[in-house]
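User: Hi! I have a protein structure encoded as tokens and I'd like to know what sequence might fold into it. I'm fairly new to this, so please keep things simple.
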């Protein structure tokens, strides 16, 4: 087997390890409300929350809070350097959700569970997801090509 084959196997093993880490990590059910955004808290960015990275370091992440009635509205802005943490977004089953994602680089944004994929990047409109949160659970929002987890939507019954 040549170097290219070994590198391919190494990259595949790394991808599997990262996916297993994300899937098998302990739940954050007792996470503080300061690090999450709920459906009743929408749009206007205010303070910051903290999140732990894969290396155990703590990073600051933006939060969104307001008390306006209406659909659950979330905005995720990712700079060209990549995500600065994973935003935790909360909605209730049955909520109308509006999620707007801007990227500082070209990629497809994928909302898992609802299987929606939208291309965005500099000079393009933001990726806009509008849907009813019909299924409870945790749904990852990631970039497809860069494979970067940028947010997690939790839909509670």
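Assistant: Happy to help. Inverse folding works backwards from shape to sequence: for each of the 157 positions I chose a residue that suits the local structure. Here it is:
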């Amino acid at each position: 087997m040549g170097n290219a084959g070994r590198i391919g196997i190494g990259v595949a093993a790394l991808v599997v390890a990262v996916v297993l880490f994300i899937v098998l990590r302990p739940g954050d059910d007792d996470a503080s409300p300061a690090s999450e955004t709920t459906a009743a808290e929408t749009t206007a960015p205010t303070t910051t929350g903290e999140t732990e990275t894969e290396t155990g370091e703590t990073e600051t992440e933006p939060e969104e809070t307001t008390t306006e009635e209406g659909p659950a509205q979330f905005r995720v802005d990712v700079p060209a350097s990549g995500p600065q943490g994973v935003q935790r977004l909360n909605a209730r089953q049955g909520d109308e959700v509006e999620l707007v994602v801007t990227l500082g680089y070209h990629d497809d944004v994928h909302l898992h569970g609802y299987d929606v994929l939208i291309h965005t990047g500099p000079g393009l409109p933001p990726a806009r997801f509008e849907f009813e949160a019909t299924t409870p659970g945790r749904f990852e929002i990631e970039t497809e090509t860069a494979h970067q987890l940028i947010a997690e939507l939790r839909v509670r019954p």
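A useful reference point when you look it over: Residues 26-53, 55-68 have pLDDT under 50 and may be disordered. Feel free to ask if any position seems puzzling.
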